[in-house]
Every structure is written in C-alpha cells, then in structure tokens.
Design a protein that fits this description.
By secondary structure, the chain is mainly β. Helix content is 11%, strand content 33%. Strands 3, 4, 5, 6, 9, 10 and 11 form a seven-stranded mixed β-sheet that branches. A six-stranded antiparallel β-sheet has the order 2-1-7-8-12-13, with no helix packed on it. The chain starts with a strand and ends with a strand. The model is unreliable at 224-234 (pLDDT under 50).
Length: 234
C-alpha cells in the first residue's frame, strides 16, 4: 500500500517541472497523510492542477467516510471493482511526489519507517484515479486514490505492495479521458519504470501525521542496527 508520501518541492519547481496549466498554491510537504488536500494533475481540455482530498469518495457513496478506506486501489482489479471502474475508464490523474514511506518490522518486532525515493531525488508521479462526490450540502468534493501493484525487488523486503510510478512518457496517455482500452492502460501499471529507487531508515516522528518537517525524511540508524539502506540493482 501507500499510506504516506512527500512533495518536498515548492510550487515554483512543481510548476516548472510538470509544465501544467493554471496556478498552484503549495508549500513543501514532508508527511502527506490520507484525507488531506493535495494537488493532483487532471485533464480538463489539457493538464491542469486541481486540489483533491486523498481517499477516493465514489460519486455514489452515501457519505464521505468511505474515502478513508479508499486511499489505494489495487491495479490488478481496479477495472472490475465498482468503486474504481468508472474512474479507471475516464477519470485518471497524476499524483506528483518525490518519495513515500513504508514500515517494516525490525528485530525487536517494532515497526520502523523507511523512506523510498529516486536515486537523484527527482520528482515523479504516481498513477491515480479521481472522482467527484456531491455532499448533502450541495458541494462538490473532489478526491483521489493512488494505484498500487506488487512490490519490486527493492520494496519487497519492506512491503508486498508498492505505488505505481508512471514513466514520464506515459503521462499524456494516462491522462487522456478518450483512451479507455484496457490493453493500452493496464501495461502502464507495472510499478517503477525508472529502475532507480533507493531507500533509508527515517525517524519515527513520521508516524504522526501532525509532524510535517524536513526531519521526516532525514536518514537515521535503525534502532536495533538492522541495515535498511539499499538500492535497486541494474
């Protein structure tokens, strides 16, 4: 799964890197958690920024509490699941990020957080889905979920699932609402096309979603000495 991630760049760098239309108001985030409002990229006659709530609320949901359980969508089944099927067909989005967290059990049977990122610390995008839900007050609530797949060899020692990281060359295809063919879209959900993920142990301060500072991504020694540093082999 993917339950926390980071965008440690400011709005100017994000705007320049992704060349997306519209304005973007954003401060660096070091510990993004579910239910928070985060900018994603959608296609509205071109790629545009739109702030959305993390945790998909399907248009047919009775209330927004459903979103807390829908922060991830399994790539293997999203084309068939009622909660995701319509969004997969025409409401796909890019979720900008530059890292994400997972937790592993150390030798003391205590879960310790690790931080995954590209070797060059660059920006990338998770594959996401979005939807619009109408609240009882008549307000539009936009929300999204992050697609996951089977973990690759780097992440597997930590967790059996990983977020899908799209190749930059696939961004436009993923965003295209006119593209509905499963045979074109499903192959994009392979995991990490960049082949350059690395990771390191971080402080347990990241366990609290209230902590959102550079300390969250700083490397630390594992509390019981387990070596958690690594990189993907060629």
């Amino acid at each position: 799964m993917c339950g926390r991630y980071t965008i440690t760049r400011g709005e100017r760098e994000l705007a320049e890197h992704f060349a997306v239309q519209g304005t973007l108001e954003f401060q660096p985030r070091f510990n993004i958690a579910p239910t928070q409002m985060i900018p994603v990229i959608v296609n509205e006659a071109g790629a545009v920024w739109r702030p959305m709530r993390w945790g998909l609320i399907p248009f047919w949901a009775r209330d927004q509490s459903m979103g807390a359980r829908m922060i991830n969508a399994r790539g293997e089944t999203l084309a068939e699941k009622p909660a995701f099927r319509r969004s997969f067909e025409s409401r796909r989005c890019l979720v900008p990020a530059d890292g994400f967290y997972e937790w592993r059990m150390n030798r003391e049977r205590v879960k310790s957080p690790v931080y995954f990122h590209l070797e060059d610390r660059g920006l990338f995008c998770f594959a996401g889905l979005w939807d619009r839900w109408l609240s009882p007050e008549g307000l539009d609530v936009f929300s999204f979920t992050i697609i996951t797949t089977k973990a690759n060899e780097v992440i597997l020692p930590v967790h059996e699932r990983m977020p899908v990281i799209l190749a930059p060359g696939d961004y436009s295809l993923w965003l295209d609402p006119e593209e509905t063919r499963k045979e074109r879209l499903i192959p994009l959900l392979g995991g990490d096309p960049n082949g350059a993920l690395v990771y390191h142990s971080v402080s347990r301060v990241v366990n609290s979603p209230r902590t959102d500072s550079p300390e969250c991504v700083q490397g630390v020694e594992d509390p019981v000495g387990t070596d958690l540093w690594g990189r993907m082999s060629d």
